[in-house]
Every structure is written in C-alpha cells, then in structure tokens.
Amino acid sequence: MERRTRLMRVVTRRIALSELGNREIARRAGVPTQRISDLLAGRLEHFTADELKAIRDSVPAVAEDSGHSPQQPTPP
Q: What is this structure's pTM?
C-alpha cells in the first residue's frame, strides 16, 4: 500500500505540472479517462502499482518533479 501511495503522489504531481489534459494522459496510458479522474480524486484502492507506473510513464517528467529545488545563485 505504501508503494502505491508514493506512486500516486508522483503521478498526481506529474499530472498537475503537465500541460497535458486528462484525456491525453488517459490515451497515452491506454486507460479510460474516468481512471485518471479516479486517480486525481484519491481513489487509490482502484489501482495496482503496475497501472500507476503505466500512467506515470505516460506523463512527461518536468524539472520540478525531481523533488529537488532548483539552486539559486548566491548573491555576490
């Protein structure tokens, strides 16, 4: 369950930061659009780890998704 929870957080973050719509994400992942809506509504019990991985892999990663803050240059 903990693994699925972590995957869900990663996937929902990617979706939030993505410029793709839910329909496009669903199409790329090969799932119905309702499944993406279920995921965003927090219905984790409806998903296996493999399904979450497939959705994660269908959404492009963005720089903010790495979990690290971009380094700010230090002032002179």
A: 0.70
- Give the whole-angstrom CA distance, residue 75 versus residue 9: 34
Q: Which residue has the tokens 């799932």?
A: 31
DSSP output for 38-71:
HHHTT-GGG--HHHHHHHHHHS---GGGGS-PPP
Hey, how many other C-beta atoms are within 10 angstroms of the C-beta on 54? Answer: 16
The predicted pLDDT at position 70 comes to 43
Phi-psi bin for 21: left (phi > 0), alpha (psi -120 to 50), beta?
A: beta
* Distance of alpha carbon 68 from alpha carbon 32, whole angstroms: 32
Q: Which two tokens stand for residue 14?
A: 């990617």
**Measuring CA to CA, how many Å separate 28 from each of 3, 33, 46?**
23, 11, 19
